[in-house]
Amino acid sequence: MNYALERFTTEVREAIAATGQAEVGQIELTTPRPNIPADLAFPTFRLAKEQGLVAPQLATDLAAAIRVDDNSLIGKVEAVGPFLNFSMHPERLAVTVLNEIFATGTCYGTHRDGHAQRVVVDYSAPNIAKRMHVGHIRSTIIGQAIVNLYRALGYEVIGDNHLGDWGKQFGVVLASIEHEGKPEGVGEAALEALEAQYARFAAAAKDDSALDELARQWSLRLEQGDPQARELWQWSVDLTMEAAQRNYDRLGVKIDHAYGESFYEPMLAGVIQEALDCGVAYRDAGGAVVIENLQNLPTFLLQRSDSGTLYMTRDVATIVFRMREFNPQKIVYVIGEPQALHLRQLFALMRAMGYAQEVELTHVAFGTVFDAQGQPLSTRRGNMVYLEALLDDAVSRARAVVERKSPDLPEAEKDAVAEAVGVGAVVYNDLYQDPKRNITLDWERMLATEGNSATYLQYSYARCRSLLRRAREDGGEGPGGELSLLVHPSETRLIKHLARLPEAVREAGARYAPFVVADWCYTTAREFGVFFEQCPVLKAETALLRGARLSLVAATAQALHNGLSLLGIQAPERM
Ligand code: ARG
User: Fold this and answer.
1) Domains of the chain and CATH, by start
2) What is the pTM of this model?
3) Is the model's pLDDT at 356 over the cut of 80?
4) What positions carry the motif 'HIGH' region (predicted)?
5) Of 105, 110, 77, 87, the residue nearest 3 (C-alpha)
6) How far, in Å, is the centroid of ligand 1 from the Cα of 570?
7) Which tens digit of pLDDT belongs to each residue from 269-313?
8) Engineered SS bond to 91: which of 121, 140, 268, 484, CB 3.0-4.6 Å?
9) Beta strand extents in 402-486 (DSSP E only)
């Protein structure tokens, strides 16, 4: 799909080339500064120098020589000093962009760039027998947005939930179950109880070698495939995944696979051997498999001297498996910043082993979460926040906002709106800025009905939808009218901004930066606010203008809805 802005850019290039003074390849265009009333500029310095001309003169000559045909998106062409400035034709822009939005609907903003290419996104990745804490919450939300973006770019996306379901700690989990039994209940509450009994057992085992031995035995039995150990382990996997699933459903998260670390157990001996064979790793005197002096990275292990394997070993096997199974062009890891070194070591090792030459390996690292007092959330501090409780908290706070702002909605609808607003606030808080940055859990800001919050965006969408409903009810002109009447400056600004969604999606994908789409949504809501303040819609001067403005409202609603759904945010029809 060739969207309006791309066509405008192409037309500008071709119009300059058609003067015979420059070749398409030589024409580098820039975006004028916001105070310049133009949409694209051609700085003529370089071309002037090549031709031994003075830039302002060349700009003037070009402006005089340029011919624009009748249905071009180019409006005005003007020489300003050394620049050749191009503005879009407001009438034709309005007609083109709005029709484009109506023709493509929910697909507006998507591309086919990734056709026949695959991306694996590794995200969420909670640890079994534990609740999902803020790190997993961030990974889940940012990861899902990246999945949505890459699907919108036309890639085949494979989501993989790399569950933390293996390791020595499961010996303690199983031993604590032998000791205290399985905790009652389901969901986060049951996991919390399981964490507590784990902690009790681990503490007791510190000065009781018999308990320590018991945990070791369970760990061994699990590794050797003992049926009772496997069954208890499976129970803990199921308990954790049931709790996760309920939260995934609320967040609109769907992950294609959940191979998990345990899945790679049978492949580990093979990858360790391979690392030894190709000379990247060596076995030291104590029997550990060591990787040293790899691109100046700190030394790390693939196998301990007690022959145990590590998180790293399983991540190596995971890449081997993903390459064989999916043959992807990219693998994206959505994991917190503290694991940056782990991933650098992993990526360097894979390259050194001759794997993943063609594949792009990317770590999308995210920052820490702070509470409203500015303290980082941590289990040790005791201020950790878990996913289910966080969503419940958000929704009950959102319920109060809905009660205040929309007291007349039916109760059941209030509940549905509160769910969308509460969950949306949590999701947006993870997405509205660069993932690298830290975020704060500040409900005041997250649920504000003005400013850069999901709530504000949802209100803007609901406002569009309510205008369209009222237009139907009062029996006057509906959406349609004469779109070329949309030339008020605030209309043109809004339309130009709507035209930018496709490039925002591209940029967000290329930078693994959902906030680019979040920014686009925020500006849309603001530009819509300005338009709504300056241009009467239902009471427009003429029926044709009213119809056109309602079309603009409908197009804004559609585009905003598309932007929000890329972020994984629901938009209620009324609020
Ligand atoms: N389960 C891990 C944790 O909680 C995250 C796993 C991330 N993915 C990976 N391939 N290492 O820290």
Assistant:
1) 4-88 (3.30.1360.70), 162-254 (no CATH), 429-567 (1.10.730.10)
2) 0.96
3) no
4) 126-136
5) 110
6) 28
7) 999 999 999 999 999 999 999 999 999 999 999 999 999 999 999
8) 484
9) 439-440
Residue owning the nearest CA to atom 1 of ligand 1? 164
Distance CA 344, CA 294 (A): 10
Question: Which residue CA neighbors atom 6 of ligand 1 most closely?
Answer: 125
What is d(CA 101, CA 555) in angstroms, rounded to the nearest whole number? 6
Amino acid, single-letter form, for residue 222? L
Whole-number Å distance, alpha carbon 164 to ligand 1 midpoint, is 6
> Which tens digit of pLDDT belongs to each residue from 367-420?
999 998 899 999 888 899 999 999 999 999 999 999 999 999 999 999 999 999
Helices (H), 535-567: 543-567
The two structure tokens encoding residue 396: 């009950």
pLDDT for res 23 = 87
CA distance 387 to 392: 9
So what's the pLDDT on residue 63? Answer: 97
Q: How far does residue 323's CA lie from ligand 1's centre (Å)?
A: 19
For residue 128, report the distance from its CA to the centre of ligand 1, in Å: 11
Q: What are 418-460's pLDDT values in tens digits?
A: 999 999 999 999 999 999 999 999 999 999 999 999 999 999 9
**By the 8 A CB rule, do 71 and 77 touch?**
no
Closest CA to 140 of 62, 248, 276, 289: 248
Residue with the two structure tokens 């003429």: 542
The atom number, within ligand 1, closest to the CA of 342 reads 11
Distance from the alpha carbon of residue 335 to the mean position of ligand 1, in angstroms:
7
Atom index in ligand 1 nearest the CA of residue 163 equals 1
Q: 294: part of which helix (H) or strand (E)?
A: none
Residue from 335, 366, 368, 387 to probe ligand 1 pocket by mutation (most atoms less than 8 Å from CB): 335
- For residue 315, CA distances in Å to 62, 333, 342 come to 58, 11, 10
How many angstroms separate the alpha carbon of residue 136 from the centre of ligand 1?
9
3-state secondary structure 382-426: CCCCEHHHHHHHHHHHHHHHHHHHCCCCCHHHHHHHHHHHHHHHH
What is the Cα gyration radius of the chain? 29
Say how far apart CA 313 and CA 273 lie, in whole Å: 11
Q: What is the mean pLDDT of residues 93-121?
A: 98
DSSP assignment, residue 108? T
